[in-house]
Write a structure and sequence with these properties.
By secondary structure, the chain is α+β, with helices and mostly antiparallel strands. Helices cover 56% and strands 13% of the residues. The protein is built from 24 helices and 17 strands. The strands form three sheets. Strands 2, 6, 7, 8, 9, 10, 11, 12, 13, 14, 15 and 17 form a twelve-stranded mixed beta sheet that branches. Strand 10 and strand 11 form a beta hairpin. The chain is elongated. The protein binds adenosine-5'-diphosphate (ADP) and magnesium ion. Magnesium ion binds next to helix 2. It comes from Paramecium octaurelia.
Amino acid sequence: MSKSSVIDVFLRVRPTKNPSNLFKLNKDEGTAEFTIPKNPDQGYINNQIEKHTFNFAGVFPTDTTQEEIFDKIAKDVVDSAIEGYNGTIFAYGQTGSGKTYSMTGNPEARSSAGIIPRTLYHIYDYARREQELIIDVTISYLEIYGGSGYDLLVADNRSRNLHDLPKVQAMATANGQTILQGLSLKKAQTEEDALNLLFIGEQNRVIAETPKNDASTRSHCIFIVILECRKPTSDVKTVSKLCLVDLSGSERIGKTGVEGILQREATGINLSLHFLELVIDCLNRQANGENIHIPYRDSLMTLVLKDSLGGNCKTRMIATMSSEPDDLPESICTCRFAGRVANIKNKVTRNEAVDPFIIIEKLKRENQQLKAELAMIKGQSIKDHLESYEIDECKKKVDEFLNSDDPAAILVVNDHLKMNECFFQLKHMLKNLNKKVSSSPVVPQPQAITNNNNTVEVQQLNDEVLRLKQLIIQRDNEIMILLNLIQKGKGSNTNQSLVLQGPISEQPEIQQANTSSILQPIEFPKQAEIDRQSQILTEKPAVKKQNFMQGSLDSEPMSQTTKTTTAQLKELNGMLSEPINISNDQLLDRNSALEMFRKSYRKAQAQEDLKQELQEKMMTSKELGLFINNQRNVISQLKDKIEQTRKEQVLLGLVSSDPNQVSTEEEKLIAEYNKQKDIYKQSFDKLKQLKAEVERMSTQLKHSREKMQQDFEKWIDMMLKQRNLSMAATSVLSDFKNLSQKGGEDVNSMVQQFYKNKEICNQLLQK
Ligand code: ADP
Ligand code: MG
């Protein structure tokens, strides 16, 4: 739906040394009043009229800040552009009245930055605040001089002359649109990129000037920002164009009149502004009901601003003026022109478009998801565990999902095992993130073991569990035989058999083993062997752990059950520069265990070095950033100096009429200027490169920290498991030893104690 909107016109008065008392502003009413005494000699515009009053949408006196100008004039046009409406803000007024100050100001100093840099800050601030909106910014900067267009965003800005800049030509498309051929469109991903483009354009503007070709007076500059905005979940995007226009000085129109201009075309006096006036007059007549052709096509200027004037665009004009007595006639002309502009009616429409690329991406994602769901429903996954490459795949997917900037990104997996793995990975990351290190020993949950990211390790652990279960069964059989022997020696005892009933019936696998023990002859362990095993397992825990660490258990009888674990320990020990002599208490305190692990962790030094290097690079980046800021000031000062020198030389008549001729002094200044600009560019490139390196190194450091955490988790799990198993197995065997030694004494309580310990051992093994 389109809405009709008039062009709002504002007046800004620049500060001057000697303001005339014939001019008055009424801020509340938004009026400007000129009281011109009747004085035909001075040739004022109409000596019959003494008072001229002009109405504006707002008037701004000399003390108005740049911020206020942006807030009152530009802000809502920029906000509308983000919503998809075209916008234009143009400054009109005589030379020196403050057009460039209002539009560009001094972008380096925030307080005196004009509308263009403030527009850029506003857009990127908005993008930072509204994470739910994706905003793509593209920038062009066009200069129009003598009816021809020039691209101000050329990378190689060694141009000495306006005509060295690439030319821009308007081409009409079949559907009546205008394309600006030769005008570069630069993507600006960050605020810094956008400001740098403005900076490049400004420098090109200055350098292309010559004393006889005072571009700041006679050329128009149009800073174009194209915004493409969309919500991540939407197929629709809005595309809008913001034109920020610094027009040439308006005085020539007033002083020479249209005919004068036409006659003097060859001397380069500005025709574009004349055509702009003409278009505005025609639009005025159209607004008054006349059916009239609007001559947009007569100049590049009016073609570029076609939408802004009478078209689909929210347009604002800033009329700038000075109230010095000599400037009042020009200021009256400016106000008259403003009045005509204020009559123009635009039709503003939101520019929405369905983006085929977004739809294709969305359909692809949907397709992937449906395929995954189908695979799950069909039960295509018949496996009970994942291969290591599949676990790696899941990890990669989770990483991609977490690192994606696209809020619509999804995690697609096609079976429940992978889904569990992805959840596990997420949980693991979350745990690391929260750094909630529990101080109690953590025995891994069954799922965690099945889904651990090392399948080989899982397999080995499962084998070990199986072996230990078999050992229990074997010991069960042995104890049964032992009890039979004791009972045979003592005669039948009902109480004793009652005691045996409980634990046996609760353990189906033991029952089975028991039956088989009757059928198959089971070798009873010799007393010497029992003694030896008990001896090993009742050694002091600290000494035992030292042995585990050094892998010396391989030669011990218990090594049958712990062979695989030892192999894993060896692998984990490979990560350490020396064995960790850790006490029981330290093992149970995760923080001190982590500290000890870190000290012996082989990769810790490399990690420390990387951290050091990263810090140094960050410091260099900071220093370089400060240097670049300073360099901008140096360049700006040189720019002012060149301008100043030119003006002086024109005044003193030191330069000839050849526009390409420059004095030696100027030549020197330009050379210095180019040199400083090269330094700026090199430093800027260096900073970009440094930033990329810092980013890469930060990621590397993050990964290496994660890897250390993972290695630590593996190591501590293994150590805890070893400790628990060794303690449980020690109790079982020592009970068994006591039982076999004591024979008939207090058999009932001994057997009870044995089953209690065996139960604990079983529970541990099942975990
Ligand atoms: P124009 O672009 O209309 O020819 P400028 O913007 O270059 O004029 O202004 C001429 C001079 O006046 C510049 O030095 C500028 O800094 C100064 N100037 C203009 N307007 C203001 C203002 N509102 N406040 C302070 N200085 C101003
Ligand atoms: Mg200017």
